[in-house]
Design brief:
Family: Belongs to the GINS3/PSF3 family.
Protein name: DNA replication complex GINS protein PSF3
InterPro entries: GINS_bundle-like_dom_sf (IPR036224), GINS_Psf3 (IPR010492), GINS_Psf3_sf (IPR038437)
Subunit structure: Component of the GINS complex.
GO biological process, one term: mitotic DNA replication initiation
Shape: elongated
Strand order of the largest sheet: 2-1-3
CATH architecture of one domain: Up-down Bundle
Radius of gyration: 24 Å
Helix content: 40-55%
């Protein structure tokens, strides 16, 4: 708690998109060192015994983020939307991929996953997310001027940018037409 009585939280604490992205589950293999009391916390029944291979189950990604670096050891299984094969396809032709179908919170969830993955895999995923976003942003801005276009193949962040762009485009067009109308009024013979 801060001296003024305010609770300091992360910047994205109240971000509904971030909350929805972290609701997704992620497949994990928990080691033998995982305490049995942990499993009810992720909505699972504790296994009778964990073999050397570990115990594979799904856990909420927000829980895994909270546990990162704690006593519970687990190996993450990268979700399909972020596998190397999918990433290579995205980097080749990012404009053609339906991100909404792949993962509706593609960038937000991807950032969470990249922070959880150790080593070069996490870095490669983060770099892919950045490059895909940069390449797709041009497509988004080009579609903004088409008022009939529906952002069906975009993830949540892209849709937000698209809708804000469309709103701005509409306001700019209305402003431009009002200026034209005022200029025509001034030039009309009745005002001379």
């Amino acid at each position: 708690m801060s001296p003024e009585g305010f609770v300091i939280v992360e910047e994205d604490y109240y971000n509904l998109d971030d909350i929805m992205a972290t609701r997704a589950t992620i497949a994990c293999t928990f080691s033998q060192k995982t305490p049995s009391e942990f499993f009810p916390l992720i909505g699972q029944r504790a296994p009778d015994a964990i073999t050397e291979k570990g115990f594979k189950t799904e856990a909420p990604s927000w829980m895994i983020c909270a546990l990162n670096g704690q006593e519970v050891e687990c190996d993450l299984h990268i979700p399909r939307a972020f596998t190397e094969t999918i990433r290579n396809g995205l980097l080749a032709e990012p404009e053609l991929v339906n991100l909404s179908e792949l993962c509706s919170y593609f960038y937000l969830y991807g950032i969470r996953i990249s922070n959880l993955i150790n080593g070069t895999n996490g870095h490669d995923l983060a770099e892919c997310l950045l490059l895909v976003f940069m390449k797709r942003s041009g497509m988004i801005y080009n579609k903004v001027v088409d008022m009939n276009f529906k952002p069906r193949k975009m993830d949540s962040i892209e849709k937000t940018i698209f809708l804000a762009g469309q709103k701005t485009e509409k306001r700019t067009t209305n402003w431009f037409h009002s200026i034209e109308k005022q200029q025509r009024k001034r030039k009309s013979p009745s005002n001379v």
